[in-house]
Design goal:
Layout (H helix, E strand, L loop, with lengths): L7 H7 L1 H9 L3 E2 L4 E2 L14 E6 L1 H16 L3 E6 L13 E7 L5 H12 L3 E6 L5 H5 L2 E4 L12 H20 L9 H21 L2 H7 L5 E6 L3 H16 L2 E6 L16 E5 L5 H13 L3 E6 L2 H4 L4 E4 L8 H19 L18
Parallel strand pairs: 3-4, 3-5, 5-6, 6-7, 8-9, 8-10, 10-11, 11-12
Antiparallel strand pairs: 1-2
Helix pairs in contact: 2-6, 2-7, 3-6, 3-9, 7-12, 8-12, 9-12
The structure holds 5-amino-5-deoxy-1-O-phosphono-D-mannitol (M6R).
Length: 359
């Protein structure tokens, strides 16, 4: 049941400290420092030269996060929407195809998995559901261990997918030829191990409910971010439109001025995601929009970064590669409280299904 919560979505957002603890349990050792994925012993990725993610919706955003991490590690990587996957794999012997899917039953993702197998690539599914079709048909499976998710909006499974892909990326960068290992591995793994506590802190201190009341009824909502914050911006917008039925879009910070800025009018809320490392582009473009009347909500751990903004959603300090996970919880709350204010059927948005088994 909902365990005292009004909606499964809120229960699932607030269970992330627990679900993420399950995702990382036994898998990271900051002292060594090392990542251990029980089914993937040392050497098992030695033949991999290239990684190709296929996924839909929220899972695609998690895949983009994983892809960006690998890109920064100098690994050849792509992420395709499963429905757009061409089935072409130029180098099947070296390519690891990774379907990312909460349910393990999404028809588009299953189609992409089958096409990848047909092309002769090795396949490794990242999923939540043991025994699902995609778990059974992929060569190998890495479980995200988030526990059952009832709300149609994916929340705790997104964070567990991202963290699982972070772990997979760490393992891959050890073995893919030419990949760059982290210099700050210990700090990174330490940051990962305290992430569940920091999410707890966000849950305890979030001002998202009051903020949602202020920004109610604006007609359009934008979310911007650069680098690893870009997929989080896309995810923030998807969640928002899915459960509030309000128009919302996510953009790469630098793309605003290439078109979307024309949509900005006085009072348009823009949620700007900062990671403390790549903030220049987001800062410049958010200020540009602000000069056109947009109201900027900065999601950041830095008071200095936030000083120009109209509002702030504060997050604790963490490693730059993990900031998106904390920012995302704030955005989940913004969607939830806005939808609640608007009286939407939060756990079952119109026209949508939890698992989309048609192409
Ligand atoms: O089960 P999957 O992860 O394969 O589902 C993919 C999408 O249908 C899913 O993430 C969808 O976008 C969510 N309802 C978004 O909250």
């Amino acid at each position: 049941g909902k365990g005292g919560y009004d909606h499964y979505m809120l229960k699932e957002i607030e269970s992330q400290p627990e679900s993420l603890s399950n995702t990382i349990r036994g898998r990271i050792d900051p002292d060594e420092p090392a990542v251990h994925l029980e089914d993937f012993p040392r050497g098992c990725f030695e033949d991999v030269t290239e990684v190709h993610f296929v996924a839909c919706g929220t899972s695609y955003h998690a895949a983009l996060y994983g892809a960006r991490l690998l890109e920064e590690a100098n690994v050849s990587v792509r992420a395709s929407r499963a429905s757009e996957f061409s089935g072409r794999i130029p180098n099947p012997d070296g390519t690891l195809v990774v379907p990312v899917t909460q349910s393990g039953e999404t028809a588009d993702t299953l189609g992409a998995l089958r096409a990848a197998r047909e092309a002769g690539a090795r396949t490794l599914a990242v999923t939540n559901v043991i025994g699902s079709t995609i778990a059974r048909e992929a060569d190998e499976v890495l479980y995200i261990r988030a526990g059952p998710e009832i709300g149609v909006a994916a929340t705790k499974t997104f964070s567990s997918q991202v963290v699982t892909l972070v772990l997979l990326a760490e393992r891959l960068r050890e073995e893919v030829e030419g990949a760059i290992a982290r210099e700050d591995r210990r700090e990174f793994l330490e940051a990962l191990s305290v992430l569940p506590d920091q999410i707890e802190e966000v849950i305890r201190t979030s001002r998202a409910e009051a903020l949602s009341e202020k920004y109610d009824d604006r007609g359009a909502y934008f979310f911007i971010g650069h680098a690893l914050q870009h997929p989080v911006a896309l995810e923030g917008a998807l969640k928002f439109k899915e459960i509030t039925y309000e128009h919302a879009e996510g953009f790469a910070s630098g793309e605003l001025k290439h078109g979307p800025l024309a949509l900005v009018t006085p009072g348009t809320p823009i949620f700007a995601l900062f990671d403390g490392k790549h903030d220049e582009k987001t800062h410049t473009n958010a200020k540009e929009a602000q000069a056109r009347g947009a109201e900027i909500v900065a999601v950041t751990s830095s008071e200095r970064t936030a000083s120009f903004a109209d509002d702030v959603l504060a997050i604790p300090d963490t490693h730059p590669d993990l900031v998106g996970l904390l920012a995302n919880v704030q955005l989940q709350f913004v969607s939830y409280y806005t939808a609640r204010l608007l009286g939407r059927p939060i756990d079952k948005p119109r026209n949508l299904a939890k698992s989309v088994t048609v192409e």
